Amino acid sequence: MAGPARMNTSLARNALWLMAAKTVVFAVAFALPLVLVRHLSQTGFGVYKQLFLLVGSALTILPLGFVMSGFYFLPRHPTRRSRVAFNILLFYVVVGGLAALVLLWQPAILEALFHDPTLAALAGPVAILVFLMVAFSFLELLALADADVQAASLLIVILTLTKTLLLVGAALVFASIEALVYAAIVQGLLQAAILLWYLTTRFPGFGRGPDWSLMRAQLVYAMPLGTAAILSVVQGDLPSYFIAHYFDAATYAIYAVGCFQLPFLSILSESVGSVMIPAVSRLQLEGRASDIVQLSARLMRVMAAIHFPLCAFLLVAGREFLTVLFTVRYADSWPIFAINLALIPLGLLTSVSDPVLRAYPEYIPLLLRLRVIILGVLAIGAWLAASHLMLVGAVVVVVVVNALDRVVLAVVLGRALNVSWHDLPLLGDVGKLAGAAVVAGLGAAAARGLVGGAGPLVVLATSAAVFAAVYLLSLLALGVPTPTERAAARGQVDRVLQRCGLRRSPPGLRGIPGEGAP
After folding, report:
1. Stated pTM of the model
2. Which of 63, 192, 218, 483 has its CA 20 to 30 A from that of 183?
């Protein structure tokens, strides 16, 4: 048992490193748009969102997820590690270079996409930016593939901080889209220098060049998963391109703020996935489908305790939430934001479906067919709504199509696990959590009505306090927390009170090192 124990300790340590890094990234990523929105005009902020929509799409789609081949080939070819790394760099540089050449050759593409001359006038710098961001974007993933978790964590923090400082500095000093483009180019050059240093020091013999047979094997491995990822990204980004084309940049800024997603939820989803994927895969190998169902139900219970109240609270106080974060200029984003809130509870299905799908790869072809069909429906619906200048209609199409995608996939995977109506009692607490969120939302709505004449921050704080109190009381009244959970919560509260000097530790524990108050 020593081996598994050491492995579990190592996994826990690595998870703590990544979670610490992601916490810093979460805080910085959350703050960046809040600063930019206060120092750019509404049109300027819209152009900024369009620019990084383009960069983000290129960054995700063009490389086909080729760096993910490193997770498979680096541990299996220890004597060819440098060739694996060089192949990844070569592939990324080639696809990034081709994208930049296309933009330089046909700068009108930018105006055709965004129906705005601002980015087209910056075609040269935008092409350089796309090349740098695509060609040298895989540093942290390569470090993770090489099991260098501490380096990956530090690199995530360093690159996020430098990007934020450069963009915020450009916005504060120049307050122009041109300055933001050049600041992002400086970030790309810094990222390239760090990547080349890391490859040279971590992969001895890196400069010997590519291995073409290994390149073919990496392509064969990466293409199917990359195709599925591309379809998912296109499904997420395509409506934004329609909106950017048919509406001006200022209106696109309203849309982008309305589609604002809390970084906390994505971090939570990634963290849960990193734990669930290996657990579900192990149970699948052991033929324990019923245990996968029970594990998934427990996961839904935990996620519902966060997703449901968050959705209910934002439905009540979302208008003030947007105003506090993005200023009153973006109050018109509220209807779009309200519709998008429907995706928060649907995130429960994604959290469960993704680990199961990875454990049952025979369903990936079905996923690809489903994504192609849904992408067609989405493209037609979003184009019809955007071309008729129906901004809210386009958002409704996006939400309905995403809901259809997640529900259909969950049903298919449920059949793979032989889920039946007899398993419904496993979700009893999920229903109670939904009920508690609704009751808390009603309480927050009443509080909001009482202080509605105060400023947005006061309304938001008051609604949040009432919501939290009613939600916790509702959970206790419905008997949701288990005795173990209640005991753990009491223990945490006692430790906090002891550390704050508000409660003395039990007499029997004062002399025991590591016990009681420090």
Report:
1. 0.81
2. 63
